[in-house]
Amino acid sequence: MRGFLPAMELQRPASLSEALQMLAAHTGRPFAGGTDLMVVYNAGKLRETRFLDIARLPELQGIRETPEYLDLGALCTFTELLAHPAIHRHFPNLVKSAKATGALAIQNRGTLGGNIANASPAADTPPCLLAYGAELELVSPRGTRVVPYELFHQGYKVMDLAADELVTRIRVPKPSGTSVHYFRKVGTRQAQAIAKLSLALVAQVADGCVANLRIGLGAVAPAPVRACHAEAVLQGQPLANLPVAVALEALLADMSPIDDIRSTAHYRSIVTRNLLAQALRTLSATGN
Amino acid sequence: MAERITLTFTLNGKPQTLAVHPMTRLLDMLREDLGLTGTKEGCGEGECGACAVLLDGRVVNSCLIPALQVEGCDLVTIEGLATASGLHPVQAALLAHNGAQCGFCSPGMAISAADLLRRCPNPNHGDVKDALSGNLCRCTGYTKIVEAVQAAARSEA
Ligand SMILES: Cc1cc2nc3c(=O)[nH]c(=O)nc-3n(C[C@H](O)[C@H](O)[C@H](O)COP(=O)(O)OP(=O)(O)OC[C@H]3O[C@@H](n4cnc5c(N)ncnc54)[C@H](O)[C@@H]3O)c2cc1C
Ligand code: FES
Ligand code: FES
Fold it and tell me: Would you say the CB of residue B105 lies under 6 angstroms from ligand 3?
């Protein structure tokens, strides 16, 4: 049964400041591309009834490039990401994850900010943003603050995001020097399937060693997480002799997979380690 | 309870004004308020593409779009694909190549395929599969549909 239409409210604030005032006054929750919210509404399971259409706020739009980073508006759709040359040049994992999100009609409508704030542990861009060391710009009537993305998700659907705050922009630093990028999502089919698990790895290499490495994991914890234990094992190691077995063992401490409709804890644990092994083969191959 | 809003947009090339609840699904607005029943509801959750329409020139699932977000937009439905001079090449090719059986997926398929040919006039097999990956068909097994889209591309090129 669909949600009850007459009980619903959807308003469009005229400006960012009006949107923030309305959020603060509990007039409604943010509504962007609607590709998560409308599914819940259509299933009759949407608890909130009042929403604010933020989809046309200019402050949340567009992609800006500086020498150091790319600054992505929270309203950027997956299609907009895929159309931008700088995303292809600097962030191939974002290209892969955007292409792996839903199908074209979803990519045309779903936004990066929505993917983040929906806080699904299985979402596809979050592991990539973790591996790229992204930061979020959050704006409320009290002002603007910047939060490292790795500190944003604090538990299942728990975020460092106040009720009167919007995610306005996502800043992603460009990897410098030689870098290796790996992303893989495992799902039942290529299009439309939500991930059973996913892994993103970004490593900067220098002098034949891992200079800096980050790993983001999807669908193996209550929220998208960094694989800090596995990262620590790999940091500084020679590409020619990566401690693969130790890293795979350490990865177990980074995950707390569960059984659910999409997969089992057992499968997730094994295949996530397989993906890390594959990523590390790619990484050591760049040393040759 | 929310008031109705007056929505203004372009529908299949003509200006349209309509009083509607802002959260009405675009799909219901088309089928129930405007009598355009070519757009179908399969899943109601963004998976099947039966409800696909073109919003400002992009394929979207009308079951996921609230009416308010259509304000000021250019909307094309399956009813707007054919012109006075005949069927859209994709529609003609679906007919000629047996690309439809029950036909329930066909409006969404035609919308997605028309969008593909606009973006990419000479698609390869992979391009067609990619473009139609959000459209489910329970009858044809897809082969005939993909062949039809490629035939439409050849006749357009
Ligand atoms: C058929 C289908 C397939 C899908 N496949 C995938 C997939 O493969 N991978 C994947 O990751 N996702 C997938 N999704 C989920 C969805 O498309 C994405 O999560 C999308 O990025 C959500 O963005 P949106 O703008 O549509 O969010 P909305 O539905 O508008 O909002 C989602 C949530 O985020 C909040 N929100 C939105 N923007 C902001 C903001 N700027 N500040 C604060 N809060 C905000 C809203 O309040 C809401 O709680 C799929 C969805 C469908 C229907
Ligand atoms: S009815 Fe909209 S995608 Fe299935
Ligand atoms: S022809 Fe029947 S669903 Fe495609």
Answer: yes
pLDDT attached to residue B156 = 53
Q: Looking up tokens 């490495």, which residue turns up?
A: A213
pTM strictly above 0.80: yes
Q: Confirm or reject contact between A206 and chain B (CB < 8 A).
A: no
Is residue A103 within 8 angstroms of chain B, CB to CB? Answer: yes
ipTM > 0.85, yes or no: yes
Q: Ligand 3, from B106, B144, B147, B149: best to mutate by most atoms within 8 Å of Cβ?
A: B106
E-only strand ranges, B12-135: 14-20, 52-55, 58-61, 74-76
* Phi, psi for residue A217 in degrees, rounded to 5: -120, 140
Picking from A127, A155, A173, the residue at the C-terminal end of a domain is A173
Please, which residues have CB within 8 angstroms of residue A258's CB and are 6 or more apart in sequence?
Answer: A265
The β-bridge relationship of strands B74-76 and B5-11 is: parallel
- What pLDDT, on a 0 to 100 scale, did the predictor assign at position B1? 52
Q: Give the structural domain span for A24.
A: 5-52
User: What residues contact residue A43 under an 8 Å CB cut-off, 6+ apart?
Assistant: A2, B45
Query: Domains (ranges, CATH) in chain B?
Result: 5-80 (3.10.20.30), 89-156 (1.10.150.120)
